[in-house]
Structure formats: structure tokens, C-alpha cells
Specification:
The protein is mainly alpha-helical. Helix content is 87%, strand content 0%. The chain is built from 9 helices and no strands.
């Protein structure tokens, strides 16, 4: 089970990071405004703090955690598909992009507490302590997700530096400083 939990946590973290990075690139390409990237970063950061307690309370009081897990994963998938649809039809709406990104981020914030609660219910105390330690080992890199995004953005900006305009490089630098 430990491998399953590690794999699912890695996939969740990787998908969230790639979605955020893709949205930064999309926002910088569509709007070429560093203020929008700063606003995007702010609106992704604040809901995680504001909704942490309500999410934890909801998970603690939920009777059907598997259903809640599936519902939040499906809704987060739908929010990503909505962002993809906006991109495909070229609907350049910054508020809509931020709204969908915040929705996606909040829905992804349900994953770790649900998994922790499910493991606490399924396993006896000794197994739970081991699995919870493994989950915490994986949760620490999630706290460093901004560093991972920073490294990827720096890599992308250096990799495509000759293809990007000076304006895009400035936008990436401002985003990196906002992390």
C-alpha cells in the first residue's frame, strides 16, 4: 500500500505543478502582463490558507470518504478540462482562468487529508504510523512545490531563451520573484 500512496501522491503533486506552470505560460503568452502573473500567484496561494480548516473539518465529518475523494478528483479534472476548452476556443479571460485555477487548486487540497483519514480508518495503529510517516515524507516536497515550479520555470526560460521575447523573460523573472 505504501507504494500506491507514494505513487498517487507523486502523480497528484506533479499534475498540480504542471498545471500551474502551464497556466503561467498561458497567462504570460496571452496577456504579457507581469501583474497578471502576480495576481494569479496570489489567488492560488490565499485559498489554500483560507480553506485549509474548512477542508479539514469537512473531511473529518464526512461519512463516505471514498465518494468525497472521487467527487473532488472528478471536479478537479473537469476544471482542468474547462481550462483546456478555454484555451482551445481562445477565450482570453483572465478572471475566468484564475477562477478555474483556484477551483482546481482548492479541489486538489482535499487529496492529502482524505488519504490520511482513509489510511487511519483502514489500517491498525502500527501500520498507520508507518504509512503516515511515508505520506509525510512525500508531503514535505509538496511544501516545496513552489521551489519545484521555480526550477522548472528557470529551466524553461533558459531552454527557450532564444525563442522568447525580452518581455516574456521579464514576466518569468517577475513570477519567480513572486514565489
Amino acid at each position: 500500500y505504501t507504494t500506491l500512496f507514494r505513487s498517487s501522491q507523486f502523480i497528484n503533486n506533479f499534475g498540480t505543478a504542471m498545471t500551474r506552470i502551464s497556466l503561467v505560460i498561458l497567462i504570460s503568452t496571452w496577456f504579457s502582463n507581469p501583474i497578471y502573473i502576480g495576481l494569479y500567484s496570489f489567488f492560488l496561494f490565499v485559498p489554500g490558507i483560507v480553506f485549509a480548516s474548512p477542508i479539514g473539518s469537512l473531511v473529518d465529518n464526512c461519512r463516505n470518504l471514498k465518494r468525497l475523494l472521487v467527487e473532488t478528483l472528478v471536479l478537479s479534472l473537469l476544471s482542468v478540462l474547462a481550462i483546456l476548452f478555454i484555451f482551445c476556443i481562445n477565450l482570453r479571460s483572465f478572471p475566468l482562468l484564475v477562477l478555474l485555477a483556484v477551483l482546481y487548486s482548492v479541489l486538489c487540497d482535499f487529496y492529502t487529508p482524505i488519504i490520511s483519514k482513509i489510511t487511519m480508518i483502514i489500517f491498525d495503529k502500527r501500520e498507520y504510523m508507518k504509512i503516515n510517516a511515508d505520506i509525510l515524507v512525500i508531503a514535505v516536497p509538496k511544501l516545496l512545490m513552489n521551489c519545484e515550479e521555480l526550477i522548472i520555470l528557470v529551466f524553461l526560460s533558459f531552454m527557450f531563451d532564444h525563442h522568447l521575447s525580452k518581455r516574456h523573460n521579464q514576466i518569468y523573472c517577475l513570477y519567480i520573484h513572486s514565489l
